[in-house]
Amino acid sequence: DIQMTQSPSSLSASVGDRVTITCRASQSISIYLNWYQQKPGKAPDLLIYAASRLQSGVPSRFTGTGSGTDFTLTIASLQPEDFATYYCQQSYSTPWTFGQGTRVEIK
Amino acid sequence: EVQLVESGGGLVQPGRSLRLSCATSGFIPEHYAIHWVRQGPGKGLEWVAGISYNSANISYADSVKGRFTISRDNAKNSHYLQMNSLRAEDTALYYCVKDILLGFGKLSRFDVWGQGTMVTVSS
Description:
- The complex is a heterodimer.
- By secondary structure, chain A is mostly beta strands.
- Helix content of chain A is about 0%, strand content about 50%.
- Chain A has strands at about 5, 10-15, 20-25, 35-40, 45-50, 55, 60-65, 70-75, 85-90, 95-100, 100-105.
- By secondary structure, chain B is mainly β.
- In chain B, about 0% of the residues lie in helices and about 50% in strands.
- Chain B has strands at about 5, 10, 20-25, 35-40, 45-50, 60, 70-75, 80-85, 90-100, 110-115, 115-120.
- At the A-B interface, strand 4, strand 5 and strand 10 of A face strand 5 and strand 10 of B.
């Protein structure tokens, strides 16, 4: 199985900050990496697919980059509604696997 | 509006069985794969099982293989997860999730999620 490792596990940031979350795969997954946002008590929402493609309706301040084993999710200017937990997920092969999550908290 | 509504969760003793259901609306079910993803209390997301649009392809996480069975009835807009030999570590919120694809392609992603049904395994 492909292991997905996110870093950091949590971070504190202020509104307006630039935030970067990293996801590393245990083997090459090309560009087959998705990002989800989960707010407390809610189901996750798809943010980015295929490493860099923005899901319809997602604000352009969210950017995904990377290929192979190393990926990043960047929030250009953190907004109050962005405080949440973010998960990466590989779709390269079954079983699909998620990273452990990165919690973005208010500083 | 695309919706997935899970039901069937509850408190069950270790070793017993439970069947989860997922009712879908707002889209043609036979056009998409469906998955179950779970989240333990205070924990991250774990993909559990997936089924292609026509049930020809099915896959399971190692942690549930041999104990859980995923199925679907497109005519009834319904999807199921039969869970046998339940363990304490199966305690989680179980989400029914729609894929963007028919089957298990590399561009698979989970674009619509239900609100989940809670399963608690405890004596």
